[in-house]
Amino acid sequence: MKTVIKDVWILTMEGEGPAVKGDILIENDEIKRIVASIDEPADIVIQGSGMVALPGLINAHQHTPMSLLKGFSDDLKLMEWLEQKMLPAEARMTPEDIYWGAKLSMAEMIKSGTTAFADMYIHMDEIAQAVTEVGMRASLTRGLVFLEDDGGRRLAEALDLIERWDGKADGRITTMFGPHAPYTCPPEPFRHVVKLAEEMNKPIHVHLAETTEEVMKIRAAYNRTPTEYLYDVGLFERLHVLLAHSVHLNLKDIRLLKGMRGGVSHNPVSNAKLGCGIAPVRQMQEQGITVGMGTDGSGSATTIDMFEEIKAATWLQKLECGDPTVLPARQVLRMATVGSAKALNIDHQVGTLAVGKKADLILVDLNKPHLQPLHNLESLLAYGVNGSDVDTTIVNGKVLMRNRQLTTIDEEELLKQVAVRAKRIVEGI
Ligand SMILES: CSC[C@H]1O[C@@H](n2cnc3c(O)ncnc32)[C@H](O)[C@@H]1O
Ligand SMILES: [Zn+2]
Questions:
Q1: Distance (Å, rounded) from C-alpha 220 to C-alpha 126?
Q2: Which ipTM value was assigned to this complex?
Q3: In the chain, what are the domains?
Q4: 297 pocket-lining for ligand 1 (C-beta < 6 Å)
């Protein structure tokens, strides 16, 4: 299968070079050529004039089925929101709800330019099945909470997910272990998960230091910061680690993370909406820590449009530092592409547009009043574009959306399913 995208602005996100005009040849799942002009027959020809092609955005922290809980319980503190609203709602979700909720998130992600995501949730078979059908790329994790006595069952499900789904869907699915957070995973089971991950050479995806309450809780229980706690259970010795949030880090914590394998998922919209705080992105980047970007689930963030996240990230850092030069356009775009790819351990495959890499890319339509005139593409993408400006989304060489029409999801059926299911789940809570 050959696809050619013609006459398009191309922002590869490789090196420092500016966008160039040209053509892109995709063969099967791979980028074969990026040159000034391609004149050879292709199965699909996409006229890209007036559009910009860039690497698909990568959402480094999601709970996809929480799309069903969007807007159901806002304006609460995190622990109240989680314990009193989300957990009871999640206990009412059936495997089929999980499947449709995951699909709803995937529809929104594809329509706003996201091609890959990291997911931590329950009933992962249903999410993996949805990923397989929809065509996105995903790093899947069974969330592990060890506060009740069924931690063993959850761990067995995590192992089952890894065994049965890692490398599946033409290699689009990868897996990680997912100890949920320092406050839900005591040291003994946490160390056990670290040991298993090391033996199986699997990364770990974990929430870290999201709120001041978490910092106080871990201080009271272990006389440590949450970062020191993770360090002490051996997380940073050998493993690739994906840290969600990392809002409340002191200088010593940041020094502990220096040199870590993996990276941080910065989730500024969710952090702002839950009043958690602003992560020290500049300080982490100064220490060479990889910072990618994510949204968290739409149960907290409402929107999972990564272009919103890009804007929030740069604005909040500029405000926090009192300096408009902090996190400039190119750097924040790199966070949402290469940064996230590194954090998910898939940067050898995606995150930039380059010959030999997987064809995960998006076309953004610039023929709109709010995106003209065209002085600086990177500025427009970081500060002006919205998810609804994405015209085409391609993953692993397959077109998942063209002219804003989804090709692998029946939107009408999806919306019918989620309306009924979402209502049933929240009734009585
Ligand atoms: C056990 S599966 C994952 C678990 O995480 C919960 N969750 C969603 N958003 C957050 C957040 O911002 N901080 C902590 N935990 C979160 C979700 O509801 C699932 O129960
Ligand atoms: Zn989360």
A1: 38
A2: 0.99
A3: 2-55+357-406 (2.30.40.10), 57-343 (3.20.20.140)
A4: yes
